[in-house]
# Entry
Amino acid sequence: MLHPVFVTSVLNSSDSGLGGSPLRAPTITGKERPSLTKSAGSAGTQRASQLLTSQWDLQLHSLIILSLVGLLLKISGSMVVADSRPNVLLIMADDLGIGDLGCFGNDTIRTPNIDSLCKEGIKLTQHISSEALCTPSRSAFLTGRYPVRTGMVSRDVVRSHGVFGSLGVHGGLPRNETTFAATLKKHGYSTALIGKWHQGLNCKYRYDYCHHPNHYGFDYFYGMPHTLNSASWPDPSRDTELAISSKLWFCMELLIIAVLTLTVGKLFHWVSIPWLFIICMILFGFFVAFSWYSSFTSSLYWSCILMRQQEITEQPLKAERAGLIMLKEAVSFIKRNKDRPFLLFYSFLHVHVPLPTTNEFYGSSNYRLYGDFVEEMDFLVGKLLDTIDANGLRNNTIVYFTSDHGGHLEVMRGRVHLGGFNGIYKGGKGMAGWEGGIRVPGIIRWPGTLPAGKIIEEPTSLMDIYPTLASIVGETLPQDRVIDGKDLMPLLKGEVQQSEHEFMYHYCGPFLHAVRWHPRNSDAVWKVHYVTPVFQPEGAIGCFDKLYCPCVGEGVTHHDPPLLFDLSRDPSESKILSRDNEPLYDTVIETVERAFKKHQKTLTPVPEQLTLYNKDLPWLRPCCGTFPFCLCDKEVGNLTMQL
# Structure
């Protein structure tokens, strides 16, 4: 390709000549033009005339060549060389069960847009999350590494401590980890994360943002640095609080000025007010601030916030409108970057409890509030895909859809189930060994490169996205660490028929619960369980007494000998195999144990972020304003896109 500066200079020279004036044929004046009649008898004059004519022919010839070169350069300059790098749209749902989508067998909830994506792309039916909770699963997705390698695990008996509990903690994804966003950014991609982060935020003080997405390869961030929780919705009326907050801080400023003025006046004997009065004013100010802070004990005010880059735009967020605002941000990002390669990680708040559904979708499904929220999510997916098509990006955009882990079985409101459906698979969110907790929907579309309507039943992982994208842009994977994900492109294109994942290790926090083995040149997929949770009450399908099944302690059962299942014949893990009914039992158990010992040797001890740094510290809580007067809403009027 010709350098644009060179092309421009040559084109200018072809228009203007080397001296800056218009290029034209040389002109011979009357004094310079030879007189043929007067010089007919002069041989010297004839030789001079011939020489001058020769020079004229040479300059005319040069003019023609320059004109042709200029024309060719103009033509070549007008030819646009298409960028072969594909755009990337990664869509991740939150807590979506594999059985919640029509293309994965659901006939109750309507998901036409995701189903259409599935028909146009490749469906991965054995797509596995590396953990069954949000924070560790997403860290593995970003880095292509098991959470136990990055320290994004907790050994606490309380399973809910396996995710970051607030924005006041100082743990986060270690900064030395490399993400797919950082890799694509290095290759000229414009990168953005819109939606949920949940990988930490601050380290030492509330505005250091040491774990902000900007530090992990994302040029642009708009969304929720934490996650939805039960306090997020129904949304309380905040108009009075917002009005009082701004006026109260103004009053506090006046009080501070008054105290400083009176103190200076007292020191210089300008006023005769007693010190007790000034001290009482100071104590009154502290009392007002403490009372205001104490009135906002709910996590709604300190963790449920929206940010644009490193600015808080809404505290607390209005959850039911957040989805549409995020969609607007995503559409805007795609339009801004339609002429250059981009990576957009659209990380849904849907379909995490408390299911803050808009009025337009409230009551729209046949599966209660959860179904309404899923159908709203499908609508938003459709809008994202429409934007890709409307900007002529369909054939050069990889679209990937998945969930961070399985649906939550134990979340209830009275007798109404508010969580997802995991199809035929046992277990759910929090259960990192059973299939229902870790088997998630996987869909990949890349028109013209990947076949449409193909179904792949081989084991694949969320961790595969990083090495797959690295391979597409021609990046070598880091050599100073173990990358557990595999490049999916040979499998997706049909160049190979078997997954590169021979063994997959299913950790619950730092504790191994199960191992999957897919022998080479075999259709079998063996699953060995060493630890399983104890379901409560007896006969239940989850841990309804705890909300989350634990990884360790009295709430689990250790199996010796281990439980064995053949997922290729029994994907629901309902038939336990033993030496009595499976001739290969000993071979499978011994092979898996050898593989795990080999795997253990590749693990390097690292600080466990969720064990050591998951305590809420008030001075790390983000604040939109001056602490503790932190309420704000800068999104008023931003919602112009309607359902």
User: Anything to note?
Assistant: The chain has a mean pLDDT of 86. The longest strand covers residues 556-566.
